[in-house]
Amino acid sequence: MQRAEDEWITVGVNGYAIEDPTRRKAGRRRIIGFVSDVSERVRAEAERQALAAQLRQAQKMEAVGRLAGGIAHDFNNILGAILGYGELAQARAESDPQLKRYVDTIVSAGNRAKALVAQILAYSRAESGMLEPVILGPVLAEVGELLQGSATANLEVRIAAPAEETVVMGDPTRLHQLLMNLASNARQAMADGGVLEIALERRALTAPERTRLAEVAPGEWAVLSVKDTGSGIPAEVIDRIFEPFFTTKPAGRGTGLGLALVHSIVREHGGAIDVKSEPGQGTTFTVWLPRIEVEQVAPAEEAAAVPGRGQAVLAVDDEPEVLAALEDMLAALGYEPTGFTDSRAALEAFRAEPQRFEAVISDEVMPGLAGTQLAVQLRAANPNIPIVIATGYGGAGFETRVHAAGVNRVLRKPYRMQQIAEALRGFFGPS
User: Fold this and answer.
1) Average pLDDT over residues 38-57
2) Any bridge partners for residue 134, and if so which?
3) Residues whose CB falls within 8 Å of the CB of residue 365, separated by 6 or more in sequence, listed in order
4) Do 153 and 28 belong to one domain?
């Protein structure tokens, strides 16, 4: 009902019929009814249902994330052997151009598979990695250059950012990935061309603002928006677009991980995401990231990796093929590896000769003793031993366990020779 010129309310009507006492023989009845304003009750019920839907969505995505993480961990072990031996074969194939082309193709395919696994693990990871102050303007500029370089004649790319620096605590690589995924989806939604707008603004909230998946708290925010003029998202699927492996693209055109990864990155950065879309009218994704005020810090330069000088390294991984590849890579780098697929056997060997080994590289997820548990026991035998833990998916609380165990360095699997060389160089210094 319209109460005033610009005010509409929801009313509830209750009514019932009674016989007319004055004309009972004629069978006439009267209607008695009550009309009341139920606007607040309807609004409260709608909010309750929205919160319940958000909770169900969060629980569903968390459960699927755990499943995806477990699958990705197993797949990472397979990739470890493929990429490890692939890198070793690349060095041997330098003198044979045709063989080198074959090996390079294998390694390239392995790296693409690694990137896919990284997306799955990024979605399922419960804890964020190391964050640093990130100026968002250059990230937008880089994404804009990439998009404009590959844009077609009928696609217009517009980038808008404030003149002042807008800084958030984050991972620059993953923030770049977030924007590229949203922009790629927007571009694919405009097969016949259109306008893609990426904008950044600084916004201060004095009151909470609700999005489709969460509520944005009052405070200082950096707000990223990616808007397209494409076909839009149908109402029947818009609530599922952030689910991993859900895609509306044809077979072979998408993995269904892009928006799931975006949601994961936003969550680990303490932000929120919203989506608004109408079929035929385009789609707008809005990302809220907590804004900070810091001075610009120059990034530290990475030191060049150098080969070893025959130092004995204890290598532990429960996957025989992965362990063999790790041992061969250590040997190629100039170290003397001793490998074990059983963490308890590795511990006994270390206890027998605690001064023999000069460093340890161990997988985290293993039967018997996990890598961090093994690290605690190794520290008891030799408090000064440098320890590297490698994992593709450490599970919930991994960073806490690593810190408690006194681990010196964490590597992400699959193993790469350059990463191993850099980690060990930090312990032994230049030759």
Assistant:
1) 83
2) 168
3) 73, 371, 391, 393, 394, 395
4) no
Q: Nearest CA to 289 among 171, 149, 114?
A: 171
Average pLDDT, integer, range 166-187: 87
* Same domain, yes or no: 9 and 108: no
How many domains does the chain contain in total? Answer: 4
Q: Which token pair is 200? A: 């950044």
Task: Give yes or no: residues 187 and 117 share one domain.
Answer: no
Same domain, 420 and 335: yes
Q: What is the pLDDT of residue 251?
A: 45
Please give the average per-residue pLDDT across 192-200, as a whole number.
90
- Does this model's pTM top 0.70? no
Query: Is 384 among the domain residues?
Result: yes
| Whether residue 146 sits in one domain with residue 283 | yes
